[in-house]
């Protein structure tokens, strides 16, 4: 779990602003749900036999009433719970997004943290395939806005429940035939979650996993048509993809379209975004059967990638006001308010110090100008403006005296 310090947070805020603008362009509206939910929301929603539920959740008993609570390990379940609870979908579908922290007890490494942040996007009440493709096109646009290179799209279809059941039977037969090479996880999951057995990193099981019956081959006409509908629209948008029939995703609520955006530039944790359709989740959690699809982007991974382009840390303010003497300090405070009225960001040096120390602070703040109020200035109702930054030719604008009444106009016009 990371601390985010002021020098780094400017990049987060800049990214969040771009992201909100991008989401707005597609009609998504913000919603915020609690970070803490009843544990059973996640065990039911995400699935009992998943890595997240089996070993990654921060779960504890509420000492006041004995409830089992869990820090959210993802946002979809909470968003769906809230949509049901507040009858959000009663007259129309909803496009919603949430930004915020999620928690998984994983082994930390670059790009993998125990508290990380997601940009979570959910299209509730849409059957697709149009919206499936729109979400993917929307992501391609974000990569373009951020100037990210080398983002690769992997796509699969997990079909309908009956198709998965038929595939599951065939898969269990296949696993039974290769029982001797299954590891402990594989043996434990072969009847409870056989698809996840194929997701193994164990080299000894790769050949068996490659030869296993593929879910994609069990898809019926409707599922195929849906998938083809997505693919046709991706082709319209000129978005390349690879079919990855082994992609299962780490959460059990998915059906039909699933996808991941992956990069080679982040080392082992290269999945920047994952998502898919979850047509069964809303009814599973007690709502009316409603189709839905969504995705989540890992903020830390996205920032890591974006940071490779470089971005200077943000200045603390536009204007730093230095002053000498009690009366000048009080004038400085009043003048700063008028500058803020004009839209400038202003720091007034706090406390008393010599000019030299104050100028040092002004410089470190990143401000464009220092406004100076000494005894002489106060008696003449003027301020001296000292420009702190050099222009492209390496010159600094000359120091100026400006009347208090003209100061904000002068500073804004020089911005
Ligand atoms: P997910 O694939 O579990 O999907 O997570 C989405 C993204 O969160 C990943 O692609 C990755 O970028 C980031 N992420 C996951 N674990 C970590 C970690 N330990 N540290 C840093 N980043 C991480 C979901 O969570 C689904 N709720 C997505 C979704 C929304 N599906 C439908 N709607």
From TrEMBL:
Cellular localization per UniProt: Cytoplasm
Keywords: Aminoacyl-tRNA synthetase, ATP-binding, Cytoplasm, Ligase, Nucleotide-binding, Protein biosynthesis
Annotated binding of L-histidine, by residue: 74-76, 104, 118, 122, 249, 253-254
Pfam family, one: HGTP_anticodon
Top-rank taxon: Bacteria
GO biological process, one term: histidyl-tRNA aminoacylation
Enzyme Commission number(s): 6.1.1.21
Reactions catalysed: tRNA(His) + L-histidine + ATP = L-histidyl-tRNA(His) + AMP + diphosphate + H(+)
SUPFAM superfamilies per record: Class II aaRS ABD-related (SSF52954), Class II aaRS and biotin synthetases (SSF55681)
Residue ranges occupied by any Aminoacyl-transfer RNA synthetases class-II family profile domain in the UniProt entry: 12-303
Subunit text: Homodimer.
Stated family: Belongs to the class-II aminoacyl-tRNA synthetase family.
UniProt-recorded name of the protein: Histidine--tRNA ligase
């Amino acid at each position: 779990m990371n601390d985010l310090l002021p020098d780094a947070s400017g990049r987060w805020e800049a990214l969040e602003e771009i992201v909100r603008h991008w989401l707005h362009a597609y009609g998504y509206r913000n919603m915020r749900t609690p970070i803490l939910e009843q544990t059973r929301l996640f065990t039911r929603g995400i699935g009992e036999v998943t890595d997240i539920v089996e070993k990654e959740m921060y779960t504890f008993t509420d000492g006041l009433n004995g409830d089992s609570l869990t820090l959210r390990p993802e946002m979809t379940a909470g968003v769906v719970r809230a949509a049901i609870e507040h009858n959000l979908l009663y007259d129309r579908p909803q496009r919603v997004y949430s930004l915020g922290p999620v928690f998984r007890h994983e082994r930390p490494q670059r790009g993998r943290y125990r508290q990380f942040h997601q940009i979570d996007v959910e299209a509730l009440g849409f059957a697709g395939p149009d919206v499936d493709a729109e979400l993917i096109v929307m992501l391609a646009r974000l990569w373009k806005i951020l100037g990210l290179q080398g983002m690769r799209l992997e796509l699969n279809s997990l079909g309908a429940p009956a198709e998965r059941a038929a595939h599951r039977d065939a898969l269990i037969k296949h696993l039974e035939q290769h029982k001797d090479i299954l590891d402990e996880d594989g043996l434990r999951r072969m009847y409870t979650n056989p698809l996840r057995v194929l997701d193994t990193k164990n080299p000894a099981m790769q050949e068996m996993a490659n030869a296993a019956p593929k879910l994609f081959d069990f898809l019926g006409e409707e599922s195929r048509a849906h998938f083809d509908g997505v693919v046709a629209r991706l082709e319209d948008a000129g978005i390349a993809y690879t079919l990855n029939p082994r992609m299962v995703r780490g959460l059990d609520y998915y059906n039909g379209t699933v996808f991941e955006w992956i990069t080679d530039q982040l080392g082992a944790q290269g999945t920047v975004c994952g998502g898919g359709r979850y047509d069964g989740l809303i009814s599973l959690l007690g709502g009316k059967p409603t189709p839905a699809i969504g995705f989540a982007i890992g903020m830390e991974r996205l920032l890591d990638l974006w940071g490779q382009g470089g971005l200077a840390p943000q200045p603390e303010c536009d204007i730093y006001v230095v002053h000498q003497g009690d009366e000048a300090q009080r004038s400085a405070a009043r003048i700063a308010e008028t500058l803020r009225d004009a839209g400038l960001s202003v720091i007034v040096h706090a406390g008393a110090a010599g000019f030299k120390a104050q100028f040092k602070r002004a410089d470190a703040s990143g401000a464009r100008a220092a406004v100076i109020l000494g005894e002489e200035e106060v008696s003449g109702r003027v301020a001296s403006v000292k420009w702190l930054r050099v222009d492209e030719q390496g010159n600094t604008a000359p120091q100026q005296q400006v009347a208090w009444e003209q100061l904000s106009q002068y500073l804004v016009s020089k911005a």
